[in-house]
Amino acid sequence: MKPTLVIMAAGIGSRYGGCKQIDPIGPAGEIIIDYSIYDALRAGFGKLVMIVNSTIEADFRTHIGQRFESQIDTHYVIQEINALPEPFVAPADRTKPWGTGHAVLACRGHVNEPFAVINADDFYGRTTYAVLAEHLATLQDLNAPTYALVAFRLGNTLSDHGTVARGICKVSEDGYLQTVRECLKIERCNGGARMQEENRTTTEFTGNEPTSMNFWGFMPRVFEQLQERFVPFLEKHGKDPKSEFLLPVIIDELIGESRAQLTVLHSQERWHGITYQLDKPLVMAAVQSFINEGTYPANLWEEN
Asked: Are the beta carbons of 118 and 218 closer than 8 angstroms?
Protein backbone atom coordinates (compact mmCIF):
# COMPACT_ATOMS: atom_id res chain seq x y z
CA MET A 1 0.00 0.00 0.00
CA LYS A 2 1.55 3.28 -1.11
CA PRO A 3 1.33 6.17 1.36
CA THR A 4 -0.46 9.44 0.64
CA LEU A 5 1.08 12.91 0.81
CA VAL A 6 -1.14 15.57 2.42
CA ILE A 7 0.01 19.15 1.83
CA MET A 8 -1.39 21.89 4.06
CA ALA A 9 -1.66 25.03 1.94
CA ALA A 10 -4.73 26.82 3.29
CA GLY A 11 -2.90 29.05 5.78
CA ILE A 12 -2.31 32.70 5.08
CA GLY A 13 1.31 33.80 5.51
CA SER A 14 0.85 36.99 7.53
CA ARG A 15 4.56 37.67 7.99
CA TYR A 16 5.47 37.05 4.36
CA GLY A 17 2.92 39.37 2.79
CA GLY A 18 1.60 37.44 -0.19
CA CYS A 19 0.58 34.00 -1.34
CA LYS A 20 3.91 32.31 -0.76
CA GLN A 21 2.46 28.87 -1.55
CA ILE A 22 2.47 29.69 -5.28
CA ASP A 23 5.52 31.97 -5.40
CA PRO A 24 8.07 30.59 -7.93
CA ILE A 25 11.50 29.66 -6.57
CA GLY A 26 12.82 27.35 -9.33
CA PRO A 27 14.46 28.36 -12.64
CA ALA A 28 11.52 27.04 -14.67
CA GLY A 29 8.87 28.62 -12.45
CA GLU A 30 8.65 25.77 -9.94
CA ILE A 31 7.18 26.46 -6.51
CA ILE A 32 8.21 24.77 -3.26
CA ILE A 33 5.27 22.38 -3.55
CA ASP A 34 6.55 21.15 -6.91
CA TYR A 35 9.77 19.97 -5.31
CA SER A 36 7.84 18.42 -2.43
CA ILE A 37 5.69 16.37 -4.78
CA TYR A 38 8.66 15.47 -6.95
CA ASP A 39 10.55 14.16 -3.91
CA ALA A 40 7.47 12.30 -2.65
CA LEU A 41 6.98 10.57 -6.01
CA ARG A 42 10.58 9.37 -5.98
CA ALA A 43 10.09 8.10 -2.41
CA GLY A 44 7.09 5.99 -3.45
CA PHE A 45 4.06 8.03 -2.42
CA GLY A 46 1.00 7.13 -4.47
CA LYS A 47 -1.62 9.82 -3.80
CA LEU A 48 -1.68 13.56 -3.25
CA VAL A 49 -4.20 15.53 -1.19
CA MET A 50 -3.94 19.31 -1.41
CA ILE A 51 -5.61 21.24 1.43
CA VAL A 52 -6.31 24.76 0.18
CA ASN A 53 -8.66 27.63 0.83
CA SER A 54 -11.27 28.79 -1.65
CA THR A 55 -9.37 31.97 -2.62
CA ILE A 56 -6.39 30.07 -4.06
CA GLU A 57 -8.07 26.85 -5.19
CA ALA A 58 -8.18 27.84 -8.87
CA ASP A 59 -4.47 28.71 -8.96
CA PHE A 60 -3.59 25.44 -7.28
CA ARG A 61 -5.69 23.39 -9.65
CA THR A 62 -4.10 25.08 -12.65
CA HIS A 63 -0.55 24.69 -11.41
CA ILE A 64 -0.69 21.24 -9.86
CA GLY A 65 -2.97 19.89 -12.56
CA GLN A 66 -0.45 20.72 -15.25
CA ARG A 67 2.33 19.05 -13.35
CA PHE A 68 1.26 15.85 -11.65
CA GLU A 69 -2.33 14.79 -12.20
CA SER A 70 -1.22 12.40 -14.93
CA GLN A 71 1.35 10.82 -12.62
CA ILE A 72 -0.29 10.77 -9.20
CA ASP A 73 -3.87 10.47 -7.96
CA THR A 74 -4.61 14.08 -6.94
CA HIS A 75 -7.39 15.41 -4.71
CA TYR A 76 -8.22 18.95 -3.59
CA VAL A 77 -9.80 19.65 -0.21
CA ILE A 78 -11.07 23.06 0.87
CA GLN A 79 -10.39 24.04 4.48
CA GLU A 80 -13.45 26.14 5.23
CA ILE A 81 -13.59 28.47 8.21
CA ASN A 82 -17.27 27.58 8.65
CA ALA A 83 -16.73 23.81 8.45
CA LEU A 84 -17.56 23.23 12.12
CA PRO A 85 -19.67 20.64 13.94
CA GLU A 86 -23.07 21.83 15.11
CA PRO A 87 -23.92 24.03 16.93
CA PHE A 88 -20.65 25.95 16.54
CA VAL A 89 -20.37 28.99 14.28
CA ALA A 90 -17.17 30.80 13.33
CA PRO A 91 -16.80 34.36 14.67
CA ALA A 92 -17.76 36.98 12.10
CA ASP A 93 -14.32 38.57 12.33
CA ARG A 94 -12.35 35.37 11.81
CA THR A 95 -10.23 35.50 8.65
CA LYS A 96 -7.72 32.64 9.09
CA PRO A 97 -8.34 28.87 9.03
CA TRP A 98 -8.56 26.98 12.32
CA GLY A 99 -5.03 25.59 12.24
CA THR A 100 -3.18 22.45 11.26
CA GLY A 101 -5.35 20.04 13.24
CA HIS A 102 -8.46 21.31 11.48
CA ALA A 103 -6.64 21.10 8.14
CA VAL A 104 -5.96 17.39 8.62
CA LEU A 105 -9.56 16.83 9.70
CA ALA A 106 -10.68 18.40 6.42
CA CYS A 107 -9.18 15.54 4.42
CA ARG A 108 -11.01 12.84 6.36
CA GLY A 109 -12.84 10.74 3.80
CA HIS A 110 -10.07 11.23 1.24
CA VAL A 111 -7.38 9.25 3.09
CA ASN A 112 -7.69 5.60 4.09
CA GLU A 113 -4.03 4.61 4.12
CA PRO A 114 -0.84 5.66 5.93
CA PHE A 115 -0.09 9.28 5.11
CA ALA A 116 2.39 12.10 5.54
CA VAL A 117 1.39 15.64 6.46
CA ILE A 118 3.61 18.57 5.48
CA ASN A 119 3.51 22.35 5.17
CA ALA A 120 3.18 23.85 1.70
CA ASP A 121 5.85 26.48 2.25
CA ASP A 122 8.66 24.32 3.64
CA PHE A 123 11.39 22.76 1.51
CA TYR A 124 12.22 19.59 3.47
CA GLY A 125 14.77 17.92 1.23
CA ARG A 126 14.78 14.74 -0.84
CA THR A 127 15.87 12.23 1.80
CA THR A 128 13.25 13.35 4.32
CA TYR A 129 10.46 11.83 2.22
CA ALA A 130 12.36 8.59 1.76
CA VAL A 131 12.93 8.23 5.51
CA LEU A 132 9.23 8.57 6.30
CA ALA A 133 8.02 6.44 3.38
CA GLU A 134 10.28 3.60 4.47
CA HIS A 135 8.93 3.80 8.02
CA LEU A 136 5.27 3.97 6.97
CA ALA A 137 5.77 0.82 4.92
CA THR A 138 6.51 -1.08 8.15
CA LEU A 139 3.18 -0.14 9.78
CA GLN A 140 0.40 -2.67 9.26
CA ASP A 141 -2.49 -1.76 11.58
CA LEU A 142 -4.42 1.17 10.11
CA ASN A 143 -6.43 1.54 13.32
CA ALA A 144 -3.43 1.77 15.63
CA PRO A 145 -2.34 5.18 16.98
CA THR A 146 1.26 4.47 15.98
CA TYR A 147 2.53 7.55 14.22
CA ALA A 148 5.82 9.20 13.32
CA LEU A 149 7.55 12.55 13.22
CA VAL A 150 10.56 13.42 11.11
CA ALA A 151 12.63 15.79 13.23
CA PHE A 152 15.27 18.23 12.06
CA ARG A 153 18.22 19.71 13.91
CA LEU A 154 17.06 23.11 15.23
CA GLY A 155 20.08 24.89 13.78
CA ASN A 156 19.09 23.65 10.33
CA THR A 157 15.63 25.22 10.52
CA LEU A 158 16.20 28.88 11.36
CA SER A 159 15.68 31.98 9.24
CA ASP A 160 18.42 34.57 8.81
CA HIS A 161 15.85 37.36 8.65
CA GLY A 162 13.77 37.12 11.79
CA THR A 163 12.26 34.90 14.42
CA VAL A 164 10.42 31.66 13.70
CA ALA A 165 8.08 29.31 15.56
CA ARG A 166 9.36 25.77 16.04
CA GLY A 167 8.27 22.64 17.88
CA ILE A 168 11.13 21.62 20.18
CA CYS A 169 11.01 17.89 20.86
CA LYS A 170 11.99 15.72 23.80
CA VAL A 171 12.80 12.19 22.66
CA SER A 172 13.13 9.06 24.81
CA GLU A 173 16.24 6.90 24.72
CA ASP A 174 14.40 4.33 22.63
CA GLY A 175 13.42 6.92 20.02
CA TYR A 176 9.85 7.88 20.87
CA LEU A 177 8.48 11.40 21.12
CA GLN A 178 7.83 12.39 24.73
CA THR A 179 6.84 16.03 24.33
CA VAL A 180 6.76 18.68 21.65
CA ARG A 181 6.74 22.27 22.82
CA GLU A 182 5.63 24.99 20.42
CA CYS A 183 8.22 27.74 20.87
CA LEU A 184 7.66 31.18 19.38
CA LYS A 185 10.21 33.81 18.38
CA ILE A 186 13.30 31.63 18.06
CA GLU A 187 16.30 33.26 16.40
CA ARG A 188 19.95 32.51 15.70
CA CYS A 189 22.38 33.49 18.43
CA ASN A 190 26.08 32.76 19.06
CA GLY A 191 26.18 29.62 16.97
CA GLY A 192 22.98 28.30 18.53
CA ALA A 193 19.58 29.86 19.09
CA ARG A 194 17.58 31.73 21.69
CA MET A 195 13.94 32.45 22.44
CA GLN A 196 12.41 35.41 24.22
CA GLU A 197 9.81 34.12 26.68
CA GLU A 198 6.59 35.99 27.48
CA ASN A 199 7.95 36.87 30.93
CA ARG A 200 10.95 38.50 29.20
CA THR A 201 13.38 35.79 30.22
CA THR A 202 15.55 34.18 27.55
CA THR A 203 15.85 30.48 26.79
CA GLU A 204 18.99 29.41 24.97
CA PHE A 205 19.39 26.41 22.66
CA THR A 206 22.48 24.63 21.39
CA GLY A 207 21.00 24.30 17.91
CA ASN A 208 21.14 20.50 18.06
CA GLU A 209 17.68 20.02 19.55
CA PRO A 210 15.35 17.72 17.55
CA THR A 211 12.75 20.01 16.04
CA SER A 212 9.34 19.48 14.48
CA MET A 213 8.72 21.17 11.15
CA ASN A 214 5.26 19.62 10.73
CA PHE A 215 6.54 16.58 8.84
CA TRP A 216 4.23 13.96 10.33
CA GLY A 217 3.41 10.36 9.54
CA PHE A 218 -0.09 9.22 10.49
CA MET A 219 -2.47 6.30 10.26
CA PRO A 220 -6.20 6.88 9.57
CA ARG A 221 -6.91 6.44 13.29
CA VAL A 222 -5.75 10.01 13.84
CA PHE A 223 -8.94 11.42 12.29
CA GLU A 224 -11.04 9.98 15.10
CA GLN A 225 -8.67 11.37 17.70
CA LEU A 226 -8.68 14.83 16.15
CA GLN A 227 -12.47 14.88 15.97
CA GLU A 228 -12.73 13.93 19.64
CA ARG A 229 -10.64 16.94 20.62
CA PHE A 230 -12.03 19.52 18.22
CA VAL A 231 -15.36 19.95 20.03
CA PRO A 232 -13.76 20.65 23.45
CA PHE A 233 -11.40 23.06 21.69
CA LEU A 234 -14.33 24.95 20.16
CA GLU A 235 -16.14 25.05 23.49
CA LYS A 236 -13.13 26.74 25.05
CA HIS A 237 -11.66 28.79 22.19
CA GLY A 238 -14.30 28.93 19.47
CA LYS A 239 -15.14 32.61 20.02
CA ASP A 240 -11.53 33.71 19.70
CA PRO A 241 -10.99 34.80 16.06
CA LYS A 242 -7.28 33.96 16.25
CA SER A 243 -7.40 30.62 18.08
CA GLU A 244 -5.83 27.62 16.32
CA PHE A 245 -6.33 23.87 16.66
CA LEU A 246 -2.69 22.86 16.29
CA LEU A 247 -1.24 19.42 15.56
CA PRO A 248 1.74 19.73 17.94
CA VAL A 249 -0.54 20.62 20.84
CA ILE A 250 -2.92 17.75 20.09
CA ILE A 251 -0.12 15.22 19.66
CA ASP A 252 1.49 16.36 22.89
CA GLU A 253 -1.79 15.77 24.72
CA LEU A 254 -2.29 12.33 23.17
CA ILE A 255 1.21 11.25 24.15
CA GLY A 256 0.71 12.54 27.68
CA GLU A 257 -2.44 10.43 27.96
CA SER A 258 -0.69 7.35 26.47
CA ARG A 259 -3.15 7.40 23.57
CA ALA A 260 -0.56 7.71 20.82
CA GLN A 261 3.01 6.62 20.20
CA LEU A 262 5.25 8.51 17.80
CA THR A 263 8.53 7.20 16.48
CA VAL A 264 10.98 10.06 15.93
CA LEU A 265 12.86 9.76 12.66
CA HIS A 266 15.70 12.12 11.86
CA SER A 267 16.41 14.16 8.75
CA GLN A 268 19.91 15.43 8.13
CA GLU A 269 18.61 17.89 5.55
CA ARG A 270 18.79 21.65 5.97
CA TRP A 271 15.33 23.22 5.92
CA HIS A 272 14.62 25.93 3.39
CA GLY A 273 11.50 28.05 3.58
CA ILE A 274 10.01 31.48 3.06
CA THR A 275 8.91 32.94 6.36
CA TYR A 276 9.93 36.45 5.30
CA GLN A 277 10.30 37.97 1.83
CA LEU A 278 14.06 38.23 2.34
CA ASP A 279 14.20 34.43 2.67
CA LYS A 280 13.21 33.93 -0.97
CA PRO A 281 16.61 34.65 -2.60
CA LEU A 282 18.23 32.16 -0.21
CA VAL A 283 15.73 29.47 -1.13
CA MET A 284 16.27 30.15 -4.83
CA ALA A 285 20.03 29.88 -4.34
CA ALA A 286 19.62 26.59 -2.48
CA VAL A 287 17.49 25.17 -5.29
CA GLN A 288 20.10 26.19 -7.85
CA SER A 289 22.76 24.49 -5.75
CA PHE A 290 20.72 21.27 -5.70
CA ILE A 291 20.37 21.50 -9.48
CA ASN A 292 24.12 21.99 -9.89
CA GLU A 293 24.71 18.90 -7.73
CA GLY A 294 22.33 16.83 -9.85
CA THR A 295 19.67 16.36 -7.15
CA TYR A 296 17.06 17.98 -9.41
CA PRO A 297 16.89 18.69 -13.13
CA ALA A 298 16.87 22.34 -14.21
CA ASN A 299 13.27 21.80 -15.28
CA LEU A 300 11.39 19.23 -13.20
CA TRP A 301 8.82 18.60 -15.91
CA GLU A 302 11.19 17.88 -18.77
CA GLU A 303 12.48 14.83 -16.90
CA ASN A 304 8.93 13.74 -16.08
From this structure: no
